[in-house]
Write a structure and sequence with these properties.
The protein has 166 residues and is α/β, with parallel strands linked by helices. It has two domains: 121 residues, Rossmann fold, CATH 3.40.50; 37 residues, no CATH class. 34% of the residues lie in helices and 30% in strands. The strands form three sheets. It has a five-stranded parallel beta sheet, with helices on both faces. Helix 6 packs across helix 7. The longest helix is centred in the C-terminal third of the chain and has 15 residues. It is globular, with a radius of gyration of 16 Å. The model has no long low-confidence stretch (mean pLDDT 93). Bound molecules: magnesium ion. Magnesium ion binds next to loops.
Length: 166
């Protein structure tokens, strides 16, 4: 049976000190600093924008602290299953996340970064698209994410995916 194990990054595989900064479009001043969880549900006003510079910083990724799920990732990787990362971060940090996983002897097939540096996307919908494609390519997809909406949408894919809210 061909299985894929798909992990979200922030607060699923790892915790970091990264915050999304909310800035004023007028002054550029920092108005707020959001955790990944807070960011998921934050609605920008017209006079604000997101500053993702900390999430682009490789230093923050290299210093990420693994959660216990790293053990599962390692175990399934050692069993020759395909491991993927599916993150709300932008694609330009994919390499840094891969490198971080190499440090735990896990080589992901691919790191999908479905987010954007300068606009807020519908992350749950973007994640569902990737998972739908993977569900077609594998007999069974296991998906782990700490965000409820991501999990709810993933469950809509139906047969072929097992979703775990962590
Ligand atoms: Mg997360």
């Amino acid at each position: 049976m061909k299985k894929a194990f798909v992990f979200d990054f922030d607060d699923t595989l790892a915790t970091t000190e990264c915050r999304v900064i909310v800035r004023s479009s007028i002054t550029g001043y920092q108005l707020d600093r959001l955790t990944p969880a807070e960011f998921n549900s934050y609605e920008l006003t017209k006079l604000e924008y997101f500053d993702f510079s900390e999430f682009r910083s490789e230093e923050f990724i290299h210093n990420a602290v693994p959660t216990t799920l790293i053990n599962l990732a390692k175990e399934v990787y050692d069993e020759d299953h395909s491991v993927y990362v599916l993150t709300a971060r932008a694609d330009n940090v994919a390499e840094a996340i891969s490198d971080w996983l190499f440090g735990f002897d896990v080589r992901p097939v691919h790191v999908y970064g479905v987010g954007s540096d300068d606009k807020k996307c519908d992350i749950a919908a973007e994640k569902k698209k990737v998972l739908t494609t993977l569900a077609q390519a594998f007999d069974l997809v296991y998906f782990y994410d700490d965000h409820e909406e991501n999990c709810d949408l993933a469950r809509e894919i139906g047969n072929g995916i097992k979703v775990y809210l962590v």
